Recover the amino acids of this structure.
């Protein structure tokens, strides 16, 4: 539950007033005891909800101890994704020995704040436990290890996680399969099997393939398009395509993002923007910050233009906690909130795009 004080954070009023004006409301909806942020037009998630979408942010376990950060996460967003807590190294650190501590902590936090949870991720080439990546496995052994992992993790979170990134980053840039341990040992059938095992463990969770550099049309997104088409034709349970959207100003906006989202939707799957951030070469200046805001607005509009684009998740919402400076030297300032948790122009651009879509929907 949110306190009235949390609902009247500085700066909310301007966005709320714009939203209320555009929506023809006399004022932003009053804080009603028991109402959640999905009804609150002063938050990004509340605005997204008016178009039937969620707006979320990833969170890593240590960040929950940052109270200001955790509180804002809980009040502004309607969805979260554990940044690391549900990965294989965390959930099955020893073969057959499962540890759900980190994932549970985020699920419990999310429940206490009324946020939904996307599960990330059941299989990936990175952050595997040593016992798995350094072992030598036959195809049958690895298949059974993968089946057990997926079954245990998905069952544990049944009813608590509404969507899973079942397979993460399984393609190369040129559209060939990534040579991960599963592909090398089992061959491409591991993808369909993983989806089937996840479905068996939780028939209600939405099952996604998820990757980066697939936001625009190109060889990599073409490969996913063909793969999802084949999986569907074979009756394999695939429900969604996750576009991570780790964008960088210096590389240009993804080519035909809206059309690309639309073609996946036309295949009969949901699309989600799952890990959005827009980095730049530092230092951030007014021009770059303005361009970044424009891009945040464009991504939001591209998603909201397609009915089956179900929501947007930032990969962390503030520059205070971001993976980027450690991964890309000299780059950063990628999120809509700065290190002091102050809103940047990107925040208003997202709000404006969400508001415009809500007006189109109600108008
Ligand atoms: O790399 C950005 C994301 C790309 N898509 C898949 C995501 O799962 C991935 O997330 C990031 C996390 O946000 C980082 O926090 O994945 C990284 C690993 O590739 C995570 O970084 C690692 C650090 O490299 C480790 O040094 C650290 O021990 O996080 C670990 C746990 O804090």
């Amino acid at each position: 539950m949110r306190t009235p004080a949390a609902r009247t954070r500085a700066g909310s009023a301007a966005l709320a007033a714009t939203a209320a004006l555009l929506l023809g409301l006399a004022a932003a909806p009053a804080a009603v005891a028991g109402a959640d942020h999905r009804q609150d037009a002063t938050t990004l998630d509340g605005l997204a909800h008016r178009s039937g979408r969620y707006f979320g942010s990833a969170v890593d376990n240590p960040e929950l101890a940052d109270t200001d950060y955790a509180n804002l996460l809980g009040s502004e967003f309607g969805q979260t994704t554990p940044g690391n807590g549900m990965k294989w190294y965390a959930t099955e650190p020893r073969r057959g020995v499962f540890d759900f501590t980190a994932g549970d902590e985020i699920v419990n936090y999310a429940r206490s704040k009324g946020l939904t949870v996307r599960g990330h991720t059941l299989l990936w080439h990175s952050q595997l436990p040593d016992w798995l990546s350094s072992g030598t496995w036959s195809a049958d052994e690895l298949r059974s290890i993968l089946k057990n992992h997926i079954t245990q993790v998905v069952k544990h979170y049944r009813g608590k996680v509404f969507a899973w990134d079942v397979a993460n980053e399984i393609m190369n840039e040129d559209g060939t399969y990534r040579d991960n341990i599963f592909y090398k040992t089992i061959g491409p059938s591991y993808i369909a099997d993983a989806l089937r095992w996840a479905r068996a463990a939780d028939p209600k969770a939405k099952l996604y393939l998820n990757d980066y550099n697939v936001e625009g049309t190109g060889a990599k997104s073409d490969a996913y398009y063909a793969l999802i088409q084949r999986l569907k034709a074979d009756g394999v349970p695939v429900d969604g395509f996750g576009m991570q959207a780790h964008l960088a100003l210096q590389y240009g906006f993804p080519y035909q993002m809206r059309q690309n989202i639309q073609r996946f939707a036309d295949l009969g799957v949901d699309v989600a923007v799952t890990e959005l951030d827009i980095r730049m070469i530092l230092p951030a200046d007014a021009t770059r910050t303005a361009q970044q805001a424009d891009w945040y607005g464009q991504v939001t509009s591209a998603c909201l233009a397609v009915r089956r684009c179900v929501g947007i998740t930032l990969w962390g919402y503030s520059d205070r906690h971001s993976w980027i400076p450690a991964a890309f030297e000299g780059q950063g300032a990628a999120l809509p909130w700065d290190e002091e948790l102050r809103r940047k122009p990107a925040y208003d651009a997202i709000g404006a795009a969400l508001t415009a879509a809500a007006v189109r929907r109600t108008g």
